[in-house]
Automatic annotation (TrEMBL):
Any single Pfam family the record assigns to this protein: adh_short
Gene3D superfamilies for the chain: NAD(P)-binding Rossmann-like Domain
Keywords recorded for this protein, A-Z: Oxidoreductase
Protein name: NAD(P)-binding protein
GO molecular function, one term: oxidoreductase activity
InterPro entries the UniProt entry points to: NAD(P)-bd_dom_sf (IPR036291), SDR_fam (IPR002347)
Amino acid sequence: MKLSAWAVLKGQFKKLPPVATADLTGKTVVVVGANTGLGFESVKHFAKMNPGRIILACRSQQKGQAAVEKIKAETGYKNAELWIVDLADFSSVKSFADKFEKDGGRLDILVENAGVSIPQYEATKDGWETSLQVNSIATPLLALLLLPRMVQTARDHGTESRIVVVTSELHHWGSIPKKVLARDDILATLGSAEYCTPSRMRTFYNLTKLMNVLFVRALNNRIDTSTPLIVNAVNPGFCVSELRRDIPFPLSWIMGFFEWISAFTTEEGSRQLVFGAVGSGKLRGEYINQSHVEEPSDFAVGEEGKKAEDRVWDELVDILGKVDRRVSTTVEAYLSSPQ
């Protein structure tokens, strides 16, 4: 699908469907990046569906605990918990998964909402460009580490578990240069200081969101249809958000102006996260926009994108297998060759 800026702008003025609902009695929901914005609003929606537990996976103890208390005050829901995870630190993601192995119980829904947009190159302690690690490497790491628990939960309770990866319509303008695709180390190249020049960093967020779409499609293609696990990518649209807090002036002013005239509210955007988690219809490996399935970018569905998808998957599994050997075990035990 070839998306124009005009089509995106028109879409911002459409009336969105009401939030999807379901009975979540006894189920466990994890929302990453839940203390503010889209994540927090989605937790409020889930809290009204009577889940057994909602785990707010947040980076900050103070902000996360404040969010838990606010959820209790605004919804009356008493089973919200704070668990700490920082996607800019692989060891933190591993610790989160360790905690689930020890005392996490069932896991039915994982909403991977955490994301950053950084205007200049910054390296994490793990040596990756920060937005690439948070948006496109640690997000898959968390999903793959929790995948066995999600599959087991679904089998034990006769349900289907769901992974929701939050992407953006900006993936339509994300691309992997041909020179990078010609290399054996696509992710390593994209995450290097040499590649992340100031001009490339201005649109780097688009690339990380394209990577989200490629990951969802690659993972779905390796999940057998008999496995009770659904994974989708959702686009919340252009919403009132703290995501743009690090954008420098004058671009911050320009974005603020467009936010004022056309942005969805944060609650409206959160409906897409909830739809990915509980909505009905053909929802396997799909890109969801405004509560219905759409075709992702031309690159993602084209021959070049398919080749890139498989190569990035192989590189990602190799990288993450070295971060945590459980990733390799999960891929071997639960996933198959691309369908």
